[in-house]
């Protein structure tokens, strides 16, 4: 996994790893911790089109439901099947094995830096 | 708003707990994993801080008579040491709170109320007892409550150094007995809200931290973990136990909630004349859904295109592995086996009416 300081973030507690034209998206450790034990994830299928800021999936814990927002406009090229089978990966390794989707984009919107996101969560 | 801190707060902070506001109290919602805490209670033991609960003492020669009038159940009929689940009803038959009442002496009862209802329960008991020869004291600030729940609870409590509960081995379900922890007096009850065997220990706040530490240390080798309110909620849901504000409220008659046997009609009490639910009133049922997506509180329940109910509590059951929910539904669709659908954020999930509780432990003590 990349250094979390090098990732981009959204105010909806997603992290974004940009490699070429593909953005790998997950939720931050802060978000996973707030949700509690994650027991179910509903992710968009590969090939589906997603729009920046729109809800594209759900992350359910025992106690609550979190929404996954697309951080970019684009096409889903891969959803993490391992997380669908073992949702606890989002808690145990949110920035690594717990990634959620990879999205191919043409234009990257303005995202938060690590320090901007950290300021948001009060860390 | 300033949150009230439990006498065990610093222990929870040191244990890395996440906190939630619960009825004005800052209480631990989980320590590390609510699922691990849930499973620990089902298979070994968990220790819970329930110091937010309300404790109201009713004392005096007519304490039993006052409670017979104030509450739906017949508290004069229970023996010293016995506990009884009861309801405080409004004059129009709605549920003000559900309670556990312990008789700790001939003229002495401890009424344990939900934290959110502590003040209203104390006020109602005071008003309803006014013409009886007894006194009502809200002791909530002077009593801490620690619950030890799970199959290994007895084994653990019997080994805690300094904890002396002479009658522990003979204590039956829904009975209580006095004990000591060092110089501190305790009331130990074989009661709980998890569907497992276990105990609740009522103790002075200044003894709570050392008692908690002693139990945690003794129990660690047996798999006991500190458990937060998140696991307590999934445990009680699996056990089909109602939660005030979800399954119970002022607009709920006892019979709707499956509590029709709590009111004792052989005596006079507040709410007695208004127990009958309205014609066609919804009734509480258990729902088992397919897949992994849980219906949650306030989600609607359908039969075809007709809305027939609303969920009051729901979760993906950690023990059973499928989604469960408690729901009020129209009486016509309340039979076991009825096929319904839950609207889970816009999509329909198939569910069927199943008996409550969802989970029952194997060995009833």
List the helices and strands and how they pair.
The complex is a heterodimer of chains A (123) and B (365).
Chain A: E1 8-9, E2 14-19, E3 22-27, H1 29-35, E4 38-42, E5 49-50, E6 55-61, E7 65-69, E8 74-79, H2 81-85, H3 89-92, E9 101-104, H4 114-121
Antiparallel strand pairs in A: 1-2, 2-3, 3-9, 4-6, 5-8, 6-7, 8-9
Chain B: E1 4-5, H1 9-14, E2 18-22, E3 25-30, H2 34-43, E4 45-49, E5 54-59, H3 63-70, E6 83-89, E7 95-105, E8 108-113, H4 118-128, E9 135-138, E10 144-149, H5 153-157, E11 163-164, E12 176-181, E13 184-189, E14 198-203, H6 205-220, E15 224-226, H7 229-238, E16 283-289, E17 300-303, E18 306-316, E19 323-329, E20 339-344, E21 347-354
Parallel strand pairs in B: 1-3, 4-15
Antiparallel strand pairs in B: 2-3, 4-10, 5-8, 5-9, 6-7, 7-8, 10-14, 11-12, 12-13, 13-14, 16-19, 16-21, 17-18, 17-20, 18-19, 20-21
Helix pairs in contact in B: 2-7
Quaternary class = heterodimer
Mean residue pLDDT of chain B: 97
Spatial arrangement of strands, main beta sheet of chain A = 1-2-3-9-8-5
User: Alpha-carbon distance between the termini of chain B?
Assistant: 43 Å
CATH topology of the largest domain in chain B: Gyrase A, domain 2
**How many strand segments of chain B?**
21
Roughly how many Å is the radius of gyration of chain A?
13 Å
Give a quick account of the main beta sheet of chain B: strands, pairing sense, barrel closure. Answer: 7 strands, mixed
The name of the CATH topology of chain A is: OB fold (Dihydrolipoamide Acetyltransferase, E2P)
- Helix- and strand-based class of chain B? alpha+beta
CATH class division of chain A: Mainly Beta
What does the overall shape of chain B look like? Answer: globular
CATH homology group of the largest domain in chain B: Probable tRNA modification gtpase trme, domain 1
Distance between the termini of chain A: 21 Å
User: Could you give the order of the helices and strands of chain A?
Assistant: EEEHEEEEEHHEH
- From the spread of the alpha carbons, the general shape of chain A counts as globular
Q: CATH superfamily name of chain A?
A: RNA polymerase II/Efflux pump adaptor protein, barrel-sandwich hybrid domain
